[in-house]
Amino acid sequence: MNRLLASLTCAFFALSSSVALPAMAGEGSAHDFALTAIDGSAMPLSAYRGKTVLVVNTASRCSFTQQYAPLQALYETYRDRGLVVIGVPSNDFGGQEPGTEGDIEDFTRSAYRVDFPLTNKTSVRGEAATPFYKWVTREAGPLGAPRWNFQKYLIGPDGRLVEWYTPMTEPDSPRLRAAIERSLATHASPAGGS
């Protein structure tokens, strides 16, 4: 049954892998919201103003879990240029994130050496979704709503949603890397600047 669900989910994602969005879509920005870090501290997204942020809802027992490795590699490659990757563990899809925050943190650090920011276990869909996920779903439109683990949202330095990617889009895909490069270039400091 799980394989059938995964196959159907993959087929859906293949039909709609990413959508570019207008620069000024909707009202507000990601900077108007906060998440909660895995250690329970506040994680205001306004702290990332001026940076490019890739927000990914994650799960430890999903067929896409191996994407933690290329997400970490992406973070290591671009963090000095202003990329932040935020992992948002969620149990919303198939019960594939059943552990506690401690379990999640131990697993991601030991299995994938993740050192990008992680949030607490968070609901990302429906009425129970956090305000950030309600906003990003509204910005992305119906096709861009999280439908499975490892949905990706690229937020620009101004807090606007740049693009969204289904779980089928690998973190090291040329399309995602190109979008990150473009976003980073929009806020690059001029040579000799501080």
TrEMBL record:
Belongs to the glutathione peroxidase family. InterPro entries: Glutathione_peroxidase (IPR000889), Thioredoxin-like_sf (IPR036249), Thioredoxin_domain (IPR013766). One of its GO terms (biological process) is cellular response to oxidative stress. Residues 1-25 form the signal peptide. Residues 24-185 form the Thioredoxin domain. GO terms for molecular function: peroxidase activity. CDD domains: GSH_Peroxidase. The active site is at residue 62. This is Glutathione peroxidase. It holds the Pfam family GSHPx. It comes from Stappia indica. The lineage of its organism: Bacteria, Pseudomonadati, Pseudomonadota, Alphaproteobacteria, Hyphomicrobiales. Keywords: Oxidoreductase, Peroxidase, Signal.
